[in-house]
Specification:
CATH class of the domain at 14-139: Mainly Alpha
Radius of gyration: 19 Å
Protein name: RNA-binding Zn ribbon-like protein
Oligomer: single chain
CATH architecture of the domain at 14-139: Orthogonal Bundle
Distance between the termini: 49 Å
Order of helices and strands: HEEHHHEEHEEH
Helix content: 40-55%
Organism: Promicromonospora iranensis
InterPro entries: ABATE, ABATE_dom_sf, Znf_CGNR
Number of strands: 6
Largest sheet: 2 strands, antiparallel
CATH superfamily of the domain at 14-139: Jann2411-like domain
Bound molecules: zinc ion
Pfam families: ABATE, zf-CGNR
Number of helices: 6
């Protein structure tokens, strides 16, 4: 973690982890990729290493992020997909030129057409969003139960009953809030 910047919440699903770089959208929003360098750092965490990023490319990334958030939210609530969001996702997907390659160990790696092509990395994220919004992958899109968060996340649990985007943050906070509410109830005087 770089000093002074909020840390990342790294999930296993690329597209919804990317939308998680802006958290608490309905509360005090936390921007986790406030600078081009932080986008570079985030991409590296997901095997999409780039060696540079311009402010314009960061804008492109944030536009894609909010478009994925809008489309995933609509999909989770079974509303019609917002056309402008779909357009942005499709544009980024079409303009990406990353290739999936196999390592000798049989793992997938992404190879960008050039190390400065943030657009290639965004294309991979956009394609990932297409696959989950289209229901191509095993799982269910849902919205975080925290009222200040409402992040779209991809539930791959067996029972498909996950309630929070992230157990360590939103999940814990909700549990704590419920615990405190119960304590207050228990200590309240019945005559008041
Ligand atoms: Zn959440």
């Amino acid at each position: 973690m770089r000093a002074g910047f909020p840390d990342f919440r790294l999930g296993s699903v690329l597209a919804t982890s990317f939308t998680g770089t802006l958290s608490e959208r309905h509360g005090d929003a936390v921007e986790r990729i406030p600078t081009p360098q932080r986008l570079i750092d985030w991409l590296a965490e997901y095997g999409l290493a780039v060696d540079s990023c311009t402010p314009a490319q960061l804008d492109l990334a944030r536009e894609l992020r909010e478009s994925i958030h809008a489309a995933a939210t609509a999909a989770a609530t079974q509303d019609a997909l917002p056309a402008p969001a779909v357009q942005v996702i499709n544009d980024r997907s079409v303009q990406g030129r990353a290739a999936a390659v196999l390592t000798p160990e049989g793992e997938r790696r992404w190879r960008l057409s050039s190390p400065s092509r943030v657009e290639d990395a965004l294309g991979v994220i956009a394609a990932d969003a297409v696959s989950i919004v289209a229901g191509e992958r095993d799982g269910r899109l849902a919205l975080c139960a925290s009222p200040t968060c409402r992040a779209a996340f991809f539930d791959t649990s067996q029972s498909r009953t996950r309630r929070w985007c992230d157990m360590n943050t939103c999940g814990n906070r909700q549990k704590k809030a419920r615990f405190l509410a119960n304590q207050r109830k228990d200590s309240g005087s019945p005559r008041c």
